[in-house]
Amino acid sequence: CSHYQKVLNKGTVEEQYKMAEELYNAKKYSKALDLFVKVTPTYRSKPQMERIEFMIAQSNFNIKDYDLAGYYFERFAEGYPKSSKREEAAFLSAYSYMLAAPRYNLDQTETRRALNSFQSFIDAFPNSNRLDEANKYYKELRYKLEKKAFEIAKGYYTTAPSDPGNYKAAIIAFDNLLTEYLGSEFKEDALFYRLKAAHDLALKSVQRKKLDRIKEAILAYDKLKRNFPETKYLEESAKLLADLQKEQQTLEKS
Amino acid sequence: RAQDATAVKKTTNLALKDTILTPLAYERGKEYTLGGISVTGLKIFSEETVMLYTGLRKGQLLRLPGDKLTSAIKKLYESKQFSDVDVYLAKIDNNVIYLQFDVVELPKLNEVTISGVKKSKAKELKKETELKKGVMITDNLLVTSNNYFKKKYTDKGFLKAKVNIDSKKDTSDLNAVNLSVYIDKGNRIKIKDIIFKGNKALSSKKLRKAMSNTKERFFGRFWKASKYIEDSYRADLEAIIEKYSRMGYRDARIISDKMIWNEDNTINLEIVIEEGRQYYFSDIIYVGNKTYPSEALNRILKIGKGDIYNGAVLKERVSGDGTPTSDDIQSLYHNTGYLFSRVNAVETKVENDSITVEIRIHEDEQATIKNVTVYGNDKTNDHVIYRELRIKPGDLFSRSAILRSIREIGQLGFFDAQIAPDIKPDWQNKTADIDFPLLEKGGSQIELQGGYGGGAFIGTLGLSFNNFSIKNIFKKDAYKPLPTGDGQALSLRLQASRTYSTYSFSFTEPWLGGKKPQSLSFSIYNSNQYQYDYTTGVIDRDQNLKIIGASVGLGKRLQWPDDYFMLSQQLSYQSFNLNNYGFRVGSEFLDNGSLNNLSYGITLSRNSSGPTPIFPTSGSDFSVGLKLTFPYSLFNNKDYSSLELAEKYKWMEYYKISAKGKWYTPFTEKLVLMTSAEGGYLGSYNSEVGATPFERYFVGGDGLAAYQLDGRETIGLRGYENNRLSSTEGGTIYNKFQLELRYSITDKPTASIYTLGFIEAGNSYDNFSEYNPFQLKRSAGLGIRIFMPAFGLLGIDFAHGFDSLPLYNNSPTAPKSGWQTHFIIGRQF
């Protein structure tokens, strides 16, 4: 360790570089990083820099600083377009961003970045043998964003009893989800909850607005049924429809 | 763009040389194979590196002249390593060409020395400048650095500062230089006189006052030194014109201004003004308003025919004064959904000194909100934030709803209060998206301490988490380092010494069940005290006092009278068990028995203060509360006058009424006045039982509620010793009034700091016959508060009590309380 400190603080650049690489190979990534930082100003724009930058990215990845790893891999992939490691770096960049992203109900900036990175990777390396993996992760990331949008929209519905304006908010939020994520895995659930929100809104409306809203709710039912004839919400949705039709009949009679 | 030009120039250069060597080559767009590149003029770079920079490869096809070569040259310049790049055709062999790059490497900076200023200053400057070891020295860098240093001093009033940068080749390195920066800051130049010419309507004194940064030299001025700073001087000139325009002198202008050097190294500023005439408003005509009638708009404008023309106020009332609470026509439209509306004031006619103004309104359609998105929540779960937002998909666009959302987020206490929502209008669909970018700040406090008190060691462990997630308490992954994100508050406190131990736990869920804004909180605590003989140091655990307490509370947000209201109810129970333990009950002691305190409390409150609970700048906070027990004595037919203490207070009975109000009045964004008034009354149902010795008010001091056994309420009144304004048994009535002026020094997520000055008055009374709301104990003082998320609130106040303590019975010779120092920890005034 004292030898390490000596090199870190007083060693020549060559010594530092040599030791950094040794530590890197010995999987002492944190210490290696400190040294890499020291040598970069000197090696910038020298041929060794390519290797150094890759090792910096890889070290960050190994110490689980995925945010930084993503950034360095991305920089590597852009900065060395002719490198043999470019494909690997591009993939690891996206993968790092993915690992850096927190759970779905927190800020998803990293997820979006990872999604874009995987998309660029798939576009840039259509013959890569990592393609399957990239596609798999791409799907997972998209699912995460869909889940987020779905839960937020559903949240409006859940809190609507205390604030009736939230029924409308829920309906629009579900609409936003359905247009933004075509073919979403949440399509069926979104359509069903959209129907539920429209149903509750209609039945809780003042007389003047009731009939129009019932009609809209019935349209919501039709949309669910058209898209998912065998929906898992068959029974529940049929009951909602019956409610609506019954109320509609009473209204139209009077 | 400049670089592009050079690049083009270089290619032309190539073409010329080209013609000499191989006249035929200059055919438009002829394609060659690149046979190789050689580089001359290298000092530290290798040929390969240069090639790497150019992006050219041996064997590639190259059109000459063409893009690839141009971009190769451009890339070399962009690398910022070379000051000169020339390209020549070295050889041409059929279709194979050989290029020669002639480069001049930029020297690298090795070391900078700064002289002429203090060592510490030189060190500081060195840190700030861009002259860092390893940078390439360009002329541009030298010029900008020179200017940077110079400006640093001229900005402080050293108008004659001189900076000189010398470069010397470093002997140890091939292509490195050392720079020496000489700074001669000279004297700070003061302004002797500011002379105005041509001003009649406004006196020179008034104009000098309008210049808020440029001041004359004046003995005794310590707020602002007299110095000349070009930028602020220009801004001050604008301020003069602004001042005129506010008085109707719309044409006022500065004809000339000059700086005159005096012999004593000071300067005079001479400003020549042409005032022009004073104007008045004539008719104000509204055009294009469909939603609001002209009269309604005029009530906002508050300008009538014949008023002195004031362009600045007109602009403020038409398009806003830049504050969120601005009352203007544009805000009116924005608050009611007309995001796409435009309001402009146009002067249509100037007749003599009267100006007709047309207010042109383009209302457009109302905008509906499409997406509402929250960013930056790295710890707090979406639902905790979204449920607080007052603007939602489908709503009409409303600025006030956005502002309310910001306040509600601020009240959560998890985020930095500076929130700037991003509004993204979609003109085509008449919708808008709103993004709320947030910045998390920590909010958990951990207290771990050991200390020596009362002749024994005391250990304390306190944990307080305000953004807890109880449902994740058994999930291992959630510990990062703690399960957070659901907005729940949890606190745990254990304190123990040889003579006593207390444990308390409390938990609050702000949205019970996640459906309604209804909070549930509960707390339990347990305390054990043992008899301790101070003379022998012996602890007898058989003589003890055990207190067990628990409470459950429900808080409900109301929609009526408005949605700032809240109704809270609380049920609490406390039981005291005595075992040969001398426990003070009022003025007597009780040794054995068990006492019970079961009460129900209800509070109606309205809190519109904001944006954050730490430094509210506007709004108010009121509450009225009632806390009561069952009136046992009215039903149990006991003769209380002859009862033993233990029987008398077996089930305590009392009722308490309280009222509190706080108003926040902002003067500027940072300067806020808090006005507060509060009072409380503790009453009894039955005169035979009398006022309970428990639950009393103790007024005076820092107001920190230390752990107490008898349910007392501690009311702070600075400038007096803790609790000393009440009798030893405590008061049954109190009132208190406060004026506190607060100035925010910083309001960052890491720390909020503000200073305060206050006057306050209050008193405590033993019973109604003593009550006199005008006989108050007064004080005034100064203090500071620091709030850091990990530590909570810390503060210190120096207060002067003007009156004497009650124990002197208002005797005229009694000493007044005088200066007191109060430390405030973890609590807000």
Q: How is this fold's topology laid out?
A:
The complex is a heterodimer of chains A (254) and B (829).
Chain A: H1 2-10, H2 13-25, H3 29-43, H4 48-62, H5 66-79, H6 86-100, H7 109-124, H8 131-159, H9 165-180, H10 187-203, H11 207-227, H12 234-253
Helix pairs in contact in A: 2-3, 3-4, 4-5, 5-6, 6-7, 7-8, 8-9, 8-10, 9-10, 10-11, 10-12, 11-12
Chain B: H1 2-21, E1 30-40, H2 47-54, E2 61-64, H3 67-78, E3 82-93, E4 96-105, E5 108-115, H4 119-128, H5 139-154, E6 162-169, E7 176-184, E8 191-197, H6 204-210, H7 230-246, E9 253-261, E10 267-274, E11 280-287, H8 294-301, H9 311-319, H10 329-335, E12 342-351, E13 354-362, E14 368-375, H11 382-386, H12 399-412, E15 422-426, E16 431-437, E17 445-453, E18 456-468, E19 488-497, E20 500-509, E21 518-533, E22 538-557, E23 565-579, E24 583-585, E25 588-590, E26 593-607, E27 619-628, H13 645-648, E28 655-666, E29 671-683, E30 697-699, E31 713-715, E32 733-747, E33 752-765, E34 777-788, E35 792-801, E36 818-825
Write a structural description.
- The complex is a heterodimer of chains A (254) and B (829).
- Chain A is mainly alpha-helical.
- In chain A, 79% of the residues lie in helices and 0% in strands.
- Chain A has 12 helices and no strands.
- Chain A has helices spanning 2-10, 13-25, 29-43, 48-62, 66-79, 86-100, 109-124, 131-159, 165-180, 187-203, 207-227, 234-253.
- In chain A, helix 5 (66-79) runs antiparallel to helix 6 (86-100).
- The longest helix of chain A has 29 residues, at 131-159.
- The model of chain A has no long low-confidence stretch (mean pLDDT 93).
- Chain B is of the alpha+beta class and 829 residues long.
- In chain B, the strands form 8 sheets. In chain B, strands 17-18-19-20-21-22-23-26-27-28-29-32-33-34-35-36 form a 16-stranded antiparallel β-sheet, with no helix packed on it.
- In chain B, helix 1 packs across helix 3.
- The longest helix of chain B is centred in the N-terminal third of the chain and has 20 residues, at 2-21.
- The radius of gyration of chain B is 38 Å and the shape is globular.
- Mean pLDDT of chain B is 86; it is low at 1-27.
- The chains are: A mainly alpha (254), B alpha+beta (829).
